[in-house]
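Priority: medium. Attachment 1 of 2:
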């Protein structure tokens, strides 16, 4: 029981009390526990990284890379698969992706070699890519990653762009922080 609680507590957003509640729930519902264990086992055995973009897949190229109507001349670089899914939900982007699986964070020991940048470079050297869109998070790590990638990719002669940042839809200007409001002003565009 202690081992189960310790493992559950390692999940993001799950503290010791939540882990304890989950463990007791699993004990009281044996069929659920067995199904959960099987699902976790299947995912760990079957889900791999796409050889092209590093998205998750069950084998071979992922669903995005297999889609023939995608614009292969654009690559949107994201930090995580969750970021890729968020962009896909907008329905506004029809290009390809590259998932870094992290962001530069020297304090956490994450340098360029921990990110999946080499695969991106291979794609840029062998493909017909015209634009790389840097869609990293607007935090210190995401900005550092974006700057690093910009410096790395600019000499390749490919247009490197950054997603816009600013006041969110439905937000109030008076409550926006100075950095967000400043970026919104810098990223303004004609109507």
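Attachment 2 of 2:
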């Amino acid at each position: 029981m202690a081992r189960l609680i310790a493992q559950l507590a390692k999940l993001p957003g799950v503290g010791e009390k939540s882990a304890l509640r989950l463990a007791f729930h699993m004990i009281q519902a044996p069929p659920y526990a067995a199904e959960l264990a099987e699902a976790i086992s299947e995912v760990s055995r079957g889900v791999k990284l796409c050889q092209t973009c590093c998205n998750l897949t069950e084998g071979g190229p992922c669903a995005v890379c297999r889609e023939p109507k995608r614009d292969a001349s654009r690559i949107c670089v994201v930090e995580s698969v969750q970021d890729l899914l968020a962009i896909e939900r907008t329905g506004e982007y029809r290009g390809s992706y590259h998932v870094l699986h992290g962001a530069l964070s020297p304090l956490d020991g994450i340098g360029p070699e921990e990110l999946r940048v080499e695969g991106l470079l291979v794609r840029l050297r062998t493909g017909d890519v015209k634009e790389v869109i840097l869609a990293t998070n607007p935090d210190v790590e995401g900005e550092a990653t974006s700057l690093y990638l910009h410096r790395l990719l600019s000499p390749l002669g490919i247009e490197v762009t950054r997603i816009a940042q600013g006041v969110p839809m439905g937000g109030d200007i008076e409550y926006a922080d100075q950095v967000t409001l400043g970026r919104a002003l810098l990223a303004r565009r004609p109507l």
